């Protein structure tokens, strides 16, 4: 039986502090290039998160692909999006924020994921003006004040997951598309470069633990999102 059925997204999340005692064993799974990148981080926390994310990506990829984790080769898109080097139907994407690492895997699709630790010590409308489209800003402003922080993060993570699925990073104009801010449904509302493209994508908002909000964007047919629990290597 396949570990990753067609039309299913498997979403894994990991709390960094639960893995701290094992960082060095995850570091042993990394390639020379990854080790060099890990060593280039200025802050220990960033180094630790990178090592754990890469180590866990290698372990999970090894299971899905039936390969030895250390031997898996990755390739990078023009703007740094990682994927497998060899032809493969499985796509993945990673995000980390605060104490959380998330990874999403699916077959035969384009996928992007974003997670953010919720903070409320900034002016959401002010930041929204730098990143969101006029229609998104209008929707955000119309929310009751106490809902604006969550509305902001729903919008941010949905947009970020979409540009991550596209793989083009911040070279993608953030005002050329808009997303819904609703609690109950996540969707692309506008894709200026091709007005029909919005119909090809499915967006989802998810929570891991209190204080975090995440989103997924998938081009392909998704019937279920399965949140996966880690039971150790
Ligand atoms: N496309 C998709 N995924 C990418 C990517 C790309 N072009 N480049 C890197 N990634 C993957 C990598 O796995 C990376 O983790 P790693 O370096 O440990 O391997 C991971 O995405 C980082 O994602 P995340 O934790 O969500 O980081 P981020 O939010 O700081 O940045 C970027 C994500 C680099 C892809 C890019 O979108 C960016 O710089 N965003 C800045 C934030 C922003 O302005 N967002 C606007 C929202 S409205
Ligand atoms: Mg992010």
Automatic annotation (TrEMBL):
Q: Which GO terms describe its molecular function?
A: holo-[acyl-carrier-protein] synthase activity; magnesium ion binding
Matching InterPro entries: 4-PPantetheinyl_Trfase_dom, 4-PPantetheinyl_Trfase_dom_sf, AASDHPPT_N, P-Pant_transferase_sf
> What SUPFAM superfamilies has UniProt attached to this entry?
4'-phosphopantetheinyl transferase (SSF56214)
Note whether Cytoplasm occurs among the keywords. Answer: no
In Gene Ontology terms, what is a biological process of this protein?
A: lysine biosynthetic process via aminoadipic acid
> Which one Pfam family would you cite for this protein?
ACPS
Keywords in UniProt for this one?
Transferase
**Which residues belong to any copy of the 4'-phosphopantetheinyl transferase domain?**
111-213
One cellular component term from this protein's GO annotations in UniProt: cytosol
Q: Which residues form the 4'-phosphopantetheinyl transferase N-terminal domain?
A: 23-104
Does the keyword section mention Transferase?
yes
Family of the protein in this entry? Belongs to the P-Pant transferase superfamily. Gsp/Sfp/HetI/AcpT family.
What name is this protein filed under? 4'-phosphopantetheinyl transferase
């Amino acid at each position: 039986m396949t570990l990753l059925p067609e039309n299913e997204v498997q979403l894994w999340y990991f709390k960094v502090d639960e893995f701290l005692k094992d960082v060095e064993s995850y570091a042993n799974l990394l390639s020379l290039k990854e080790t060099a990148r890990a060593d280039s981080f200025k802050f220990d926390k960033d180094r630790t998160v990178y090592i754990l994310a890469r180590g866990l990506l290698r372990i999970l990829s090894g299971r899905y692909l039936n390969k030895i984790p250390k031997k898996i080769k990755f390739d990078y898109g023009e703007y740094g999006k990682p994927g497998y080097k060899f032809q493969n139907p499985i796509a993945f994407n990673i995000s980390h924020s605060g104490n959380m690492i998330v990874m999403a895997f699916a077959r035969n699709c384009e996928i992007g994921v974003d997670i953010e630790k919720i903070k409320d010590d900034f002016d959401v409308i002010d930041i929204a003006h730098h990143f969101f489209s006029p229609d998104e800003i209008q929707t955000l402003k119309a929310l009751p004040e106490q809902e604006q922080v969550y509305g902001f993060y729903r919008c941010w993570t949905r947009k970020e997951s979409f540009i991550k699925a596209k793989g083009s990073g911040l070279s993608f104009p953030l005002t050329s598309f808009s997303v819904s801010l609703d609690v109950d449904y996540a969707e692309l509302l506008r894709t200026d470069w091709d007005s029909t493209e919005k119909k090809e994508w499915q967006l989802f908002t998810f929570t891991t633990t209190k204080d975090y909000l995440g989103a997924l964007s998938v081009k392909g047919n998704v019937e279920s999102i399965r949140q996966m629990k880690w039971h150790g290597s």
